Amino acid sequence: RRSRPSFSSKLKDMQSFFGLNRTGSLNPDTLAVMTTPRCGVSDVEDYSHRRGNRWKKNIITYSVGRYTSDLPVNTVDAQVASALDAWAKASPLTFQRSYSHQADIMVEFVGNEHGDSFPFDGPDGTLAHAFGPGEGIGGDVHFDEAEAWTAGFKGFNLYVVATHEFGHALGLKHSQNPDSVMYPTYKNRKTQNLLSSEDIMNINTLYGPRDKSGSYFPVSYKDTCNPDLTFDAVTTVGEAIFFFRDKYLWIKHNNQNDIKEGPISNFMPKIDCQIDAAYWVPQRSTAYLFNGTNFWTVKGSQVKGRAKNIRNLGFPSWVQQIDAAVHIHKTVHTLFFTQHQYWRYNEHNKTMNDSSPRNISDDFPEINGPISAAIYKDGSLHFFVGSDVYKYDVKQKEIIGADKTTSWLGC
């Protein structure tokens, strides 16, 4: 019969996991790691593993039960959906919202004792824990309600923690790589492209690649008319419309039936990355392209100078990514959308509006779901939400039309 490991040997295992000296004693470095806010899934138990069980299906249901009082319900829903979408984009998995207590993944914000034999410990300790795939409690994710949950970076970013915990719910274990989203201690991370190459490789090992080519970022789109096609950014540029997806670009001219397409770098050689948001200011004949906290100024196909930081536009440091941007030339304002909020920027004065940010749901009440792109065309705003496009009347605050993204490419 195997004897139970001593405290010292377990401590050495944990020290090895975090790259510390294997002393077997509670030295300052070890104590610092132990007191860092973290996931509640045991590091020591799983330190040598990268993956475990898997779901035996690719369509997985989820439900949000008890909510946190720190954030609006729609914000929690959006953060949870975005965290699951990060894994969906890297795998063949599809996540469907359910309102049943029988969903595969039950998400809840709970207190110390909450019925699973793993009580939480109050603020700044264990942030959350999850159970691997399986029946009953398998796949469930619990967040400690005692923590300060945010959609920014002042407390604990729900999207970052949820992405980590959903990794466990899908069968992934902790990683020793600090760049991995599955690293056990909490870090303020850029929310753009949160999954590391290791995370993508590990989820692919469990469930297979996202598409037949096995590529997380496809270099071409042979099936432009796929009804599930989504865009990362869309903008008018003169008489043309530019559609961005991953590192790919479609250019559609209003008076022409043919569409130019190819890698972004074919059209703008200085840019070899995904574009998160884009907009066009006709008075300057200038486009602005965003990636993470950087943006480029583009005239024609010429990228002017080096990338600048979005702090130059007046964004605070906790804004790490622009989801969508649109310029309304009649008001000389540009709207920037970041998660559940939006910002209004005066292009003439080059200042951010004093009332920014505002909640998207307050001023655009019928737009549900994360906005991935937006353009102003023919006197109306058009919001790209998933594979749907909504024509929006700003004065009436209502949707006046809807179609699919593929219809904009002539499908």
Report on this structure.
With 411 residues, this protein is α+β, with helices and mostly antiparallel strands. The protein folds into 2 domains: 36-207, Collagenase (Catalytic Domain), CATH 3.40.390.10; 233-409, Hemopexin (4 Propeller), CATH 2.110.10.10. It is built from 8 helices and 25 strands. The strands form 6 sheets. The chain has a 6-stranded mixed sheet with strand order 1-5-6-4-2-3, with helices on one face. Helix 4 (73-89) packs across helix 5 (158-169). The longest helix is centred in the N-terminal third of the chain and has 17 residues, at 73-89. Pfam families: Hemopexin, Peptidase_M10, PG_binding_1. Ca(2+) 3 binds at residues 121-122, 144, 147.
Write the layout of secondary structure elements.
Layout (H helix, E strand, L loop, with lengths): L6 H11 L10 H7 L3 E2 L3 H4 L12 E6 L8 H17 L4 E4 L7 E6 L15 E5 L10 E4 L4 E2 L5 E2 H12 L27 H11 L25 E5 L2 E6 L2 E6 L5 E5 H4 L9 E5 L4 E6 L2 E6 L2 E8 L14 E5 L4 E6 L2 E6 L4 E2 L5 E2 H4 L9 E5 L2 E6 L2 E6 L4 E7 L7
Parallel strand pairs: 1-5, 2-3, 2-4, 4-6, 7-8
Antiparallel strand pairs: 5-6, 9-10, 10-11, 11-12, 13-14, 14-15, 15-16, 17-18, 18-19, 19-20, 19-21, 22-23, 23-24, 24-25
Protein name: Matrix metallopeptidase 20b (enamelysin)
Keywords: Calcium, Disulfide bond, Extracellular matrix, Hydrolase, Metal-binding, Metalloprotease, Protease, Repeat, Secreted, Signal, Zinc, Zymogen
Family: Belongs to the peptidase M10A family.
